[in-house]
Specification:
1% strand; single chain; mainly alpha; two-stranded antiparallel sheet; 364 residues; 16 helices
Length: 364
Amino acid sequence: MAGVDERLAGLLGEAEAMLERIERDRRALLERIGAAPNVGNASAVLRRLSGGSGSATTREKLWRAWSAAGDAHLDPLIDALDAIAAILRTRGGRCGYPRKLEENLVLAVEAQRRLESEVRAVTGVAGDSRAHFWFALRTSFGDPAPPVFTLDSCLDFLCTLARRVFGVSPCVRWEHAGDRLTFDEARRLFGRFGSAVGSAAGKAMPGHTDHLELWFEKWVYHPGFARDYGRLKLVEHRLGHVERAVAALLDLRMRRPGGGGLREAFAALDKRFGVGRYCSLGDVAAAHLVRAGETPLWVRLDREAEMLLRLLPVWELRLDELPAWGAQEPAAGGGRALFDFYDSAMLTQQGGALQAPCNRRAGG
């Protein structure tokens, strides 16, 4: 077993090395066009460049060059993942339910088509929506500076939410330099706080309280906390609908005996569902499969859908209007919740400046 674990660790290291090379090549691409990413990762620079370009031709050229830089290391990356899959299949365990995952993929493609239509309506361009998405997003929401939240404002919002719905207010240790948090850091804090609430509430709380981290982390998008910036981030999430659904199916293939190779599996999904229009095998592998971890991706989707069904009926309420957890009735719809929640935020031709998040005490 130790030898197998060492082999698995070595293969994961190879896959991680490919991701580093992809990042290096994409940074080199940006440097060649005079946009060296001195701060942040290359993806953030791509978003800024593409979002700020009024030329559809320039955006499409940039997207093609970006994609080619990622695909340059695709073969060794997929070879490493196929070798990892061969090891995972020997360990058995839960292998999932492909029909449910395929139904999820159908819903994801439908949702991605809706986003594609919105991008086309905002930009007037019928090309690859991935090339024009960031320009459409900037047209719709402007170019706001990423918000910074104080730790006190985050904890005040969370404690108000926890007391109102669960009747508890847990203590959460948050190891972070300073008391200023980015949006993503705040989302992680919300998730950690949800885990603490689940532990504090326990089995004594009426209703299902497992995986509360997934319920709490969604509140970072709520207008009572992030104002309009939360809506912008919901739209961003929509760009990855198909990518995440494909990743769950490929992750299943990697763990299921007889699952076959990733190239063949992706080609089959593209033939049946047309997923190649919205993501590439390289996108899925880099963003999801290399760091999939022990918990299968399809299990995570199930848990998230369950929590979203609990969240949707109360999402439009103020904090002081929220009913207790045991008095809440989940929405119907199953896996559709994975799309209904995020698709509530749309691109618009109207545009306009965002209302900035405010660091204040949580009231309503």
